[in-house]
Write a structure and sequence with these properties.
two-stranded antiparallel ribbon; globular; 72 residues; 7 strands; single chain; mainly beta
Length: 72
């Protein structure tokens, strides 16, 4: 099942992520499209500003809401 609760939220990578469509360097930014579960793992599908769209694990990204809450 697709969860679109966070659709449109911005995020950035916390470290280099290697994907089948190319590498996402640390600090790469993107927009969350949806979340889903596969084989008991949560995946977040992101449309990256680099032009690729790939899923990532939650611990690989920092959500803008998390970053803004830490600043306050």
């Amino acid at each position: 099942m697709l969860d679109r609760t966070h659709t449109g939220w911005r995020c950035r990578t916390q470290r280099l992520i290697r994907t089948v469509k190319g590498d996402l360097p640390r600090g790469s930014q993107g927009t969350i499209v949806y979340e889903t579960e596969n084989l008991g793992r949560q995946l977040i599908f992101v449309s990256w500003d680099t032009g690729i769209s790939v899923p990532v694990f939650p611990d690989e990204i920092e959500w803008e809401a998390q970053r803004n809450a830490a600043v306050q």
